[in-house]
Amino acid sequence: MGVAGKKGAKERALRGRSRGSTSAVVAHRHMLALAYWFGLVGTLAFAAVYGLHSWARYQEENHARLALMAAMIAAATREGLNGQAARLTFLAEQLRALHPLRHRRRAGRLLRRYQRASPDITGVAVVGPGGRIVASAQGTGQSPLRGSHLPAGLWADWRKSLKTDGLSVSRPLYDPKTRQWLVGFGYTVWRAAGAARYMIFETMDFWTFDHALVRLPLIRGLAVGLLRNDYYLQAREPIPRGGLRGIMERPQAGILARTLITDGGRSAGFFMGLVNADDQYRIGAYERVAGYPLVAFADMARRQIIVAWWREQVEIPLGFLLIALLFSAVAYRRIEVLTRRWEQEKERQKSVLRSLAVHDPLTGLLNRAGLVPLLKRALERARRYEWFVVVGFLDVNDFKTINDQHGHAAGDAVLRELAMRLKRAMRSTDRVVRLGGDEFVFVMEGVRAKEDLQTV
Q1: Which end of the chain is flanked by fewer CB atoms within 10 Å, N or C?
Q2: pLDDT digits (tens, 9 = 90+) for 17-62
Q3: What is d(CA 175, CA 154) in angstroms, rounded to the nearest whole number?
Q4: C-beta separation of 107 from 100 below 8 A
Q5: 173, β-bridge pairs
Q6: SS3 203
Q7: What is the pLDDT of residue 12?
């Protein structure tokens, strides 16, 4: 194989390695991008799974807290009503010995002593089966138990209680005379034949009855209360903005009432939906008060639960996640920029190396390796356009004397000056090549006839 063949093989090998290196760089960039996007999608998927799991766990914890609060209210209510029942039972035993229907004055004195010992009640009375007040005692202020008969509204509600054993609890009723909301407690005393003999009736201000709920350690946004089996509200904290009349005078038809209708008499459970008391979508738990027609409940607005979950479970991890994603995006972008710069620098170095391979570093002219492809292209153009290619050889006489007398630096300066003058003397389409030492070759194209050589 000749010199030109060896150089051509070397150039083909160099181009092959360049293409292989470029392919490797492209593959590296693709792998880098794939790794980044895979990490990003994986991180977002993990965040979604974490969010769903965290929300489910937070809902379970919130249900447990609400159930505990409802159970606590139910237990406290049962204990309070049992105490009220014990107190009225004790009073009933004392009245039996007095025969209050025949000894009204003695019964009145007993009731006054009872009322003074029970400052939380507004009044107490012995009421006959027809609603006639046999004897009564009132606390400070106004009381609906003054006069000879119970007010029509109270008696209409309490007439049903004459058929009930044990303690009866009325729903909160508004007394227009006293302009108070009252809660009544009744205890029926029976005849031996099984008929109602009379009822011991006492009233309590609604706010006194509701005060037990106020004393509970309520967190912000939590609503607690008691709902009767006839779906009237017995108590609720906090009181809605519309006041008591908006929620106490009609049976409830919200999600809790509908849940109690369809729960099959379960002792406890959960509900979720729109609550009529404040027209909010709430999540809550309920528990029936054992021995009494009441249901204790505790609920919270779903919006507040979501906000609390966000602040407690999501806000801080999400902040770290966003910081990590931002950092990874900046790092990826920086790596991509550096990779592109590295590729550009590598291409520049390859270009420089390719240029050095075919150019003379001293004069900047093509060297012996660059002459072969130059001649090939020139001959191809000559065949295409049917002109001559003129190749000339030139060397410097006594160049060795210059090096010996003035040094190699002077010789290099002579060669550079000669190369510059040759380039200026030649046409723009002509090329000058340094073969080596003081030997130069010039290639001229576009010569149509030999006669034109003299002009060139």
Answers
A1: N
A2: 555 555 655 666 677 777 778 778 888 888 888 888 888 898 899 9
A3: 8
A4: yes
A5: 182
A6: strand
A7: 55
pLDDT of residue 20: 54
Task: Give the residue, 278 or 287, on which the prediction is more confident.
Answer: 287
Phi and psi angles of residue 412, each rounded to the nearest 5 degrees, phi first: -65, -40
> Would you state the pLDDT for residue 3?
43
3-state secondary structure of 269: strand
User: 188 with 161: CB under 8 angstroms?
Assistant: yes
The residue-averaged pLDDT of 374-403 equals 87
Residue 209: C-alpha distances to residues 80, 91, 184 (Å): 10, 20, 10
Residues 217, 156 contacting (CB under 8 angstroms): no
Residue labelled with tokens 């974490």:
50
Q: Which residue has the tokens 């609890």?
A: 169
R_g (Cα) of the chain, nearest Å: 53
State the CB neighbour count (10 A cutoff) for residue 210. Answer: 21
Q: Which two tokens stand for residue 195?
A: 């008929």
Tell me the C-alpha distance between 97 and 248, whole Å.
Answer: 39
Query: What six digits make up the tokens of 129?
Result: 């089966």
186, 299, 361 from 374: Cα distances, Å: 121, 91, 18
3-state DSSP call for residue 194? coil
Length of the chain: 456
- DSSP states of 96-149: HHH-TTT-HHHHHHHHHHHHHH-TT-SEEEEE-TTSBEEEEEE-SS--TT-SSB
Tokens of 330: 């900046």
Instruction: Write the Ramachandran bin of 218: left for phi over 0, alpha for psi from -120 to 50, otherwise beta.
Output: beta
The listed range with the strongest mean pLDDT (127-141, 259-273, 334-348) is 259-273
